[in-house]
Amino acid sequence: MALLFIVIGAVFDFFDGMSARLLHVSSPIGKELDSLADDITFGFAPSAIVFSYLVPLTSHLSPLTSYLAFVMAAFSALRLAKFNLDERQALGFIGLPTPANALFWGSLIWSLDWQRWFEPYLLPDFWLYIVLVLIPISSYLLVSEIPMFALKFKTWGWKGNEVKYIFLLTCIPLLFIFQVTGIAIIIAWYVILSSINAHFFNDPNIH
């Protein structure tokens, strides 16, 4: 249910700016309120999901361990603040967008919660430590200087949009095969593809 509401929030987040411009009601205060709403939907909400997953698994560790999940909420707020001030992000993103991070975690924790049949074949606490390692990686990606493409099209032709079309075409089989888990795989693929695009092809449309 939490993942569903994050998805609904992402849909509204996609259309809110467009709606404000169409209705001529965009304003600086609206921009700040939008960021505040984004930090709740895409910062606090996924952190709360991870926290709820960690609580029963960290009873043998420090009672504070599960609260590491909320580090992502703080980094999400920092990422949103940087986005509002960074003029380089007109056509793309610098760092992982908060909606993508939230969808990754919602999908991942849903998958871990429903695929416990893996556990007899893994080391004890395997998924716990995977999640604890992914939290700082995710937090770093939010505020990193890694350029990441946005699904914004100036033209609909193949040239100049190769990476975007490759990404969209690969998303279809991933969702079909892996279903909800595919969302987390798609976000990981998005980060990898953005890094390849930025470092090897130096795509000017990414900034």
Topology, please?
Layout: H1 2-22, H2 28-54, H3 71-85, E1 92-94, H4 98-114, H5 126-143, E2 147-149, H6 162-178, H7 180-201
Antiparallel strand pairs: 1-2
Could you please describe the fold and organization of this structure?
With about 210 residues, the protein is an all-alpha fold. It has one domain (about 1-205). Helix content is about 65%, strand content about 5%. A two-stranded antiparallel sheet has the order 1-2. Helix 2 packs parallel to helix 4.
**End-to-end gap:** 35 Å
Helical run tally: 7
Major sheet details: 2 strands, antiparallel
Portion of residues in helices?
55-70%
What number is the mean pLDDT? 86
Classify the secondary structure makeup into a structural class. mainly alpha
Total strand segments: 2
Cα radius of gyration in angstroms: 18 Å
In sequence order, what are the helices and strands, one letter per element? HHHEHHEHH
What share of the residues does DSSP label as strand, in percent? under 5%
Strand order of the largest sheet: 1-2
Oligomer: single chain
Uncertain runs are none
Shape summary: globular
How many structural units, i.e. domains? Answer: 1
